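# step 3/5: fold
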Amino acid sequence: MKELESIMKNRWLIALSAVGIHICIGSVYAWSVLTQPLMQELGAGFREIQWTFSLAILFLGLSAAFLGGYVEKYGPRKAGLFSAVFFCTGLAGTGIAVLLKSLPLLYLFYGVIGGIGLGTGYIAPVSTLVKWFPERRGFATGIAIMGFGFASLLAAPLYQLLMQKHGLIATFEYLSLFYLLVMVASALYLAPPAATPQAASGGNVAGSKQPITGFTAREALKTWQFYTLWWMLFINITCGIGLLSVVSPMAQESLHLSPLAAATMVGIIGLINGAGRIFWASVSDFLGRANTYIAFFLIQSFAFFWLTKTSDAILFQLLVYLIISCYGGGFATVPAFLSDLFGTR
């Protein structure tokens, strides 16, 4: 019955469902828009509030790592629903934390509970899409992860407008309900493809002359290639995540932008982040994954060097956008890189 259902699924609607989940959980990239309102409401300092974002990213990584087996065992649908419950509970609980002016509750709901929802929701669609598009892995993962990057384009101005009209507490409650509807609808359509000889072997990689070996996760962890790739991704993340978490207050203090203008800049970053994911992931199908990562590191080295030298607002923003493009591209390229090296097993 499940095989018949998966055969009847349209892989482009599967991709759309993946984007639906990612565009909801990717609203975490609009965090910097919330920083100053949270500081005012809770009477806390910047560092105390910023710990919330750090916790969310920490638990995103931990849940993605340790719940990967759950996704493979129970399938993307249950994993997507699991993500929806945790992420939206985290948002709703954040509103309660603001109401009670409690930092520990803020850490618990947005950082821990919301972070678990982030990690599970991040990997569920990606591992599924790689199997639906065996001939274009980079493009497929770029589609899914594009939604995560694009999210702040919608979330940043939406947060700002809701906060202006309804206040910070209501903003979290409204968005938790809206995201719950979108994520549940998206998760219910997700399904792995029916088993085929090509899918079982992992398919053929564009531009590769060698067949893929189907490693298990335990076998992949015993190779030096896995840890080299982990370190490459870690460096790429470090280059972008710091900018993403502080860009709104930084723009207001350094570039003297209004809160709405700073939120708009965060939105543009979301556009660049999302576009960079689909662009670089698609490029990697032809340029090669390793060459694409070399390009990331060269571009980011140049951009960070000039970022410390310029006081021009336009050049500053362009350099930030360039860094974020590579940051998003690194996320979108690495799942295809993993499947090239170890297969989709």
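# step 4/5: annotate
Residues 196-212 have pLDDT under 50 and may be disordered.
# step 5/5: archive (pending)
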